[in-house]
Each structure stands twice: as C-alpha cells, then as structure tokens.
Amino acid sequence: MQIVFNSPLLYVADYPAHDAVEVIDKRTGVGAFMRDETAQRFRAEFLELAAKNPDMEALDELIDHYHALMTQPAILH
User: Is the dihedral of CA 43, 17, 68, 59 positive or negative?
Assistant: First the structure.
C-alpha cells in the first residue's frame, strides 16, 4: 500500500499488488475501493491532475466524477 495523497479533505491510497485504489472524501466521510479498470482510470486522471499542481477546486471536480462510487462510510480513517 502506498499513500498517494493525504490532505484535510481527501485521502488516496494505492494498492498496486491488487490493482486497486482507495479514495476517501473526508468532507462527507465516505469512500470507495476501486479495482481493475476503474482504479487504472482514477490513477491516470489523478496523476495527470497532480502533475499540474492543482488547487482544491480541481481535486473536487475529479472526486465528484467518482462520487457515485463512494458509498462506504469511512469510520476508521
């Protein structure tokens, strides 16, 4: 597991051995564990965005695209 991003609003962990990504929106207290093609797409979009040194609004837009998948309560993070 690698913690890719951790801010007061967002947590992203990568699980390369499982081809998975965990994303937690700390504002709403929910998260998603994405695997396979979804995880690959999120990784690519996140890395592309990170290379541009984004502001929080840009990160919000990215997370909003995946918000429908974020249904798991984040009670341990």
Answer: negative
Summarize the chain as % helix, strand, coil (round to 5). 45, 30, 25
Burial group, residue 27, by CB count within 10 angstroms (0-12, 13-18, 19+) = exposed
pLDDT tens digits, 59-75: 889 989 998 999 999 87
* Contact residues for 53 (Cβ-Cβ < 8 A; gap 6+): none
Q: How far apart are CA 53 and CA 7, in angstroms?
A: 14
What's the pTM value of the predicted model, to 2 decimals?
0.85
In whole angstroms, give the CA distance from residue 60 to residue 36. Answer: 23
